[in-house]
Amino acid sequence: MLRLSKLFLRTLRDDPADAEVPSHKLLVRAGYVRRVAPGIYSWLPLGLTVLRNVEEIVRSEMVAMGAQEVHFPAMIPRETFEASGRWNDYGDSLFRLVDRKGADYLLGPTHEELFTLLVKGEYASYKDYPVTLFQIQTKFRDEARPRAGILRGREFVMKDSYSFDLDDDGLAASYQAHRDTYEKIFTRLGFDYRIVFAVSGAMGGSASEEFLAPTPAGEDTFVQCTDCDYAANTEAVEIAGPPPQDGSAQPQSQVLDTPDTPTIATLVERLNSLDLGRSFDAADTLKNVVLKTRAPGQKEWDLLVVGVPGDREVDLKRLSGQLEPVEVEQASAADLATQPGLIKGYIGPQNLSELKVRYLVDPLVVEGSAWVTGANVADQHAVFVVRGRDFTPDGEIGAVEIRDGDRCARCGGTLQIARGIELGHVFQLGRKYAEVFGLSALGANGKPSTITMGSYGVGITRAVAALAEQTLDEKGLCWPREVAPADVHVVAAGKDDTIIAGAEQLAEELEAAGLRVLLDDRRGVSPGVKFKDSELLGVPTILVVGRGLVDGTIELKDRRSDERSEIARDQAVAIVSSIASPTAKPTPNPTPKPAPQPTPKA
Ligand code: ATP
Ligand code: MG
Question: Which of 221, 460, 462, 470 to probe ligand 1 with, by most ligand atoms within 8 A of CB?
């Protein structure tokens, strides 16, 4: 039983100054976490209880799916990450350190390398596979913008698991098993979640989906089709463009003097005054944005020009998701100066191949479409510049900022944009790491084949913040029962001994019935303060023991709905027990796979 008279807890009336999102404010005010440094937090007893509850749900479902738990060190020698290329690829997000002998180490941001090496060390035959291993461990990432308390930390707990299969069908099955398990996990945790297509980023690989918790505080934007079940992270979304056009039907391109047209709006106005046989708007202009890219390990940046319709912005996050591990940034004036052929404000694609500058267009710039664009001469624009006739891009890349109302690439329906928090990620890593580390299995025919892997993560600490975010209200935290720090919060609302003793007695009975009890037995704290604290702390059921006790009644309150009722003291244990059905067991796995017998290595 947790007694507030002794619990290591100080609730705060005021929001912490550095907190932007509601969950961060409340987790600090309710005494769940305390900040040590940016993105680095300590967990206090109530917070730790919630964290452990989340962890246990994740662990039990992983075990139920047949995954086996292991534990790796956080500290990893440089050579291991050098072999996979991630010592460089991870860039500034990697925490690197040096030991007393001058050897380099890093603090693991994820553990693909170590899992691959571990399996390689133990398994050699096709008979050993498939196998799935997981760990629940502290990860370190020097995030550029640690944010929202524990939502984006620099030190955080993650469940990461890895599947090892002999072939693509096996990988597909392991991936599906994880996806199913994640559905069970996020359902049990009490999340409202969506599964969206994702890009796999630095890790490469094929199938990749994210589990997102929709909330305005989320950093990820995703789209959902209102007509079909398509949902994707905006970094990975594909939108339907117009059909290809017949460029030969367009008039010859011509160059026009367009001085004093500093913006797309002024340019369009000028064009419409020129009687060119048609009208123009911003969407008819081709905006060419100069960026720069740098491949991992490379020192120099290369210029990259990206063409998008002029009524759209370039979405750098979406671009970088697709280009990873290649870095991409806006080019500076100094970068532009390295290529005098690029005339700021008048860049057109007509001469980019001559200049040997890489040029990509958004798929909205379809083959055969005609554009107004820069003429690569100051104060001049060109009209009727046709893709495929007047310029040929080096390729396409989804670059535009997605808009509410864009068309679904699957069904042509309407896409809606929402924000969410990434809770978990499942993806098919493939053979990248197995190839790097030489992980293969001897087949029945005596020939080795490379193992194929999947990689799967759940943010445990992030789940605590995300759940808080999705469930809180104006009064405080409001935990789903399975993760709540207690089932019932008993408030002794009064100073006299009979009330304190009565609450104590009730709390003991509740505990004896198997319930997790938080008892506010503080003397000298007013009932008003105790009520406020009970709302702030967020235990789902609250029992108030007050003056009614002499008549045999207490108050039962539901934290979420705020519904209150007088109940008979004698009925309290039975009533609360029925509300708080005991913590659910892991969802049974309908078809448990027989565990493969490890073959000893020769
Ligand atoms: P994000 O895009 O939010 O940075 P990620 O794509 O880097 O996440 P993964 O490498 O797939 O994340 O990690 C698996 C899970 O770990 C994520 O789904 C998320 O829940 C959690 N996670 C990742 N970074 C952090 C962080 N800095 N703080 C807390 N949890 C994190
Ligand atoms: Mg990240």
Answer: 462
Are 370 and 250 in contact by the 8 Å Cβ rule? The answer is yes
Q: Which two tokens stand for residue 292?
A: 């720069």
Q: What pLDDT was estimated at residue 597?
A: 52
Report CA 129 to chain centroid distance, whole Å: 30
Mean pLDDT of 300-313: 95
Beta strand 358-361 pairing with 302-309: parallel
Give just the sign of the alpha carbon dihedral 173, 175, 178, 180: negative
Rounded CA-CA distance 452/545 in Å is 60
Locate tokens 């309150």: which residue? 557
C-alpha span between 97 and 74 (Å, rounded)? 12
Task: Name the DSSP class of 31.
Answer: T
* 303 DSSP 8-state letter: E
From the number of C-beta atoms within 10 Å of its C-beta (0-12, 13-18, 19+), residue 160 rates as buried
According to the model, what pLDDT value does residue 207 have? 86
- Tokens 């011509």 — which residue? 254
Name, in order, each residue with C-beta under 8 angstroms of 415's C-beta and a sequence gap of 6 or more.
Answer: 223, 224, 225, 226, 237, 239, 402, 404, 405, 406, 407, 408
Nearest CA to ligand 1 atom 25: 152
Question: What average pLDDT score do residues 448-462 get?
Answer: 96
Residues 45 and 52: their CA atoms lie apart, in Å, by 10
pLDDT tens digit sequence for 84-115:
999 988 889 999 999 999 999 999 999 999 99
Q: Is residue 239 over pLDDT 90?
A: no
The vertex-48 CA angle with 480 and 477, nearest 5°, equals 35
CA of 448 to the centre of ligand 2 (A): 35
